[in-house]
Amino acid sequence: MEKRLFKILMILMLLGIVCITFYLNMWNTEKPTMIAKNGRMNLLDWDFKKDGIVHLDGQWEIYFNQLLKPQDIKNREVERYFYIPGKLKEQLDGNTTGYMTLHLRVVVPEDVVYGIRIDSMLTSSKVWVNGVEQGGHGKVGKNIKDEKAIYLPVYGYFTPEDGVVDIVIQTSNYRDISPNIRSMDFGLKNQIMDEYMMNISMDNVIIGGLLMIELTYLAIYFLRGKEKSFLYFSILCFLIQLRCCILNERVLVQLYPHMPYELLSKTAAITYYLWIWTYVLFLKEQFKDVSDKIIYFSMVFGSVFTVICLMTENMIYDQLGILTQVLLLCIIIYILIFLIKKSIKGDQKGKLSLVAFFVLIITAMNDIFVNNGVLNNIYIFQIGMFVFAFLESYMLAVNFSMGFNRIKELSIENQEIYEKSIRDSLTNLYNHKYIKQVLSNKIEDYKENKEGFIVLMVDLDHFKSINDKYGHPFGDKVLVRISNLFMKMLRATDTIGRYGGEEFLIILPNTNMVEARKIAERIRKSVENLIWDDSLLKTSISIGLYENEATTKEECIKKVDDLLYRAKKNGRNRVEEYMGNSSRKIKNYA
User: Fold this and answer.
1) Which of 111, 136, 289, 487 is most deeply packed, by most CB within 10 A?
2) Strands annotated E in 162-290
3) Cα 260 to the chain's mean position, in Å?
4) How far, in Å, CA of 360 to CA of 426, rounded?
């Protein structure tokens, strides 16, 4: 059953990867390569409804180290062009910091409302369309002190003037050491709004789903003996959740638009460091043979770079990016090799973890390439992390289920052991110790709640002579048969135990004397009427019947034992009865 579920899950995950790939391809195909030339893009022949959103890629006018407004650009001679998407260092003579103005004229059909999406233009920006300010993010400055950096997408909606959309963007960068300007989305208003809704919905689904998983396993951690794998997994989900809040539509920044860029940038970096550290600890809980060296290495890696990130400015710890990526790659290679070995050995957990980790690597590589301007996709690492969380959650659920079943099996096994400990090995009735405990409990109920009950002490008549004449093995068969007869004739609420060799104690709760008398007499007659292989053998029992008034177990047993003794003394095969009310009334049954 588990193998079948595993195969189904693998198929679903492969379909998921195919869907992600298809989605990314659609993302690229719905933004065809229309190229701007010399600061101008002609979209008169572009069918937005059919062909979708377009990237504003190509040659933009750029005025480096100048902050110009729309009216300043009208009669200004173009100095140079910047090809978008592109890196500042490659196109601005090695410069990675500074301020600038970008300008593009887009020719479009009139009488249509358009929209634009700018995915964080460097570390701050201010946008105009046809001379009307559309907003921006942060505050553009001519130095690092004047600049206020914020990490946030910019959306704008507008109509063309005389068939032209004139876009002017002021922007600056003093904090990102490898800045690049990414493609901007241009389309009909409803297309840009749909893109925003799709992105924000995806983020919210992932964040909400991770929150549910995170809280579920955190609760299980506290409820189930502090099993560390559940705690580590909850932390992993939280770090994924936090990263998702920062990237793509920046849900966290949407809620707190004045959040400092440095805080967001450092948080995004720290999630990497702490995530890999926690993941290695999580693996250690799942697979006990994870090397202690890699655990120590990942802990040192996560701790050192987290401290560096917190204690230094962005520009300083960003310069350590290559070193962190090399060390991170070493940890990733170890994990991959470890999980591959587990999978080869047929370990189902290893196979599932390998698929989860592989999805994570693929989506992480996409984000690295996007961040460095190599690819023009969207950030999908949060999707990969969500898939990872789902797979690992499934694995933990299976392990939890197996553990629960094992506990259940142990409980059943322990119950069986307990049952054997309170049963008589020959007759399978309750043993002497347990029946006395039941009697003690009934006495306590009688004292506290006045819950009445009746006790029967039963003895097999002339049992010694049966053993002497037929042998002890036959005597044991007689005891077993009579015990089975007792069990058939008693009610489910009654309790019977083997009190001694051939003596039995029966407790009848919530029973009046009329009912008890009928039960005792029915038992006596049934034993008397038993037919044995030897027709000369006749069996009978003597019974003491006591309606309890005692307040101690010892007193109760003495009373009923006295009645049994009287039954034997008066000729056996009879019931001696005590009816209570502080006066003894004896009635004999021949």
Assistant:
1) 136
2) 164-173, 180-181, 185-188
3) 32
4) 63
Handedness of CA 135, 240, 194, 182 (dihedral sign): positive
Determine contact, residues 80/100, Cβ cutoff 8 Å: no
Cβ-Cβ contacts under 8 Å for 34 (sequence gap 6 or more): 41, 43, 46, 54, 55, 57, 58
Terminal C-alpha separation, the chain: 65
Contact between 489 and 526 under an 8 Å Cβ cutoff? The reply is: yes
Where do the DSSP E strands lie in 422-540?
Answer: 453-460, 495-498, 503-509
Q: To 10 degrees, what angle do helices 261-286 and 292-311 make?
A: 170
3-state secondary structure of 366: helix
Residue at token pair 């095969």: 573
Q: Are strands 185-188 and 54-55 parallel, antiparallel or unpaired?
A: antiparallel
In this structure, how many other beta carbons lie within 10 angstroms of the beta carbon of residue 53?
Answer: 20
Cα 493 from Cα 516, distance rounded (Å): 13
For the chain, the maximum distance between any two Cα atoms, rounded to a whole number of angstroms, is 134
pTM: 0.58
Helices (H), 471-586: 472-489, 513-528, 553-569
* Distance between CA atoms of residues 188 and 190, nearest Å: 6
Alpha-carbon distances, residue 434 vs 135, 144, 498, 551 (angstroms): 83, 84, 10, 19
Pairing, β 35-36 against β 57-64: parallel
| DSSP letter, residue 54 | E
Which contiguous run of DSSP H or E holds residue 17? helix 2-29
Count Cβ atoms below 10 Å from residue 507 Cβ, excluding itself.
23
Query: pLDDT digits over 280-307, tens only?
Result: 888 888 887 888 888 888 888 888 888 8
Token pair of 169, please? 């963007």
Instruction: Report pLDDT digits (tens) over 396-451.
Output: 776 666 554 554 555 566 677 778 888 998 999 999 999 999 999 999 989 888 88
Amino acid occupying residue 294: I
Write the pLDDT tens digit of every residue in 331-351.
888 888 888 888 888 777 778
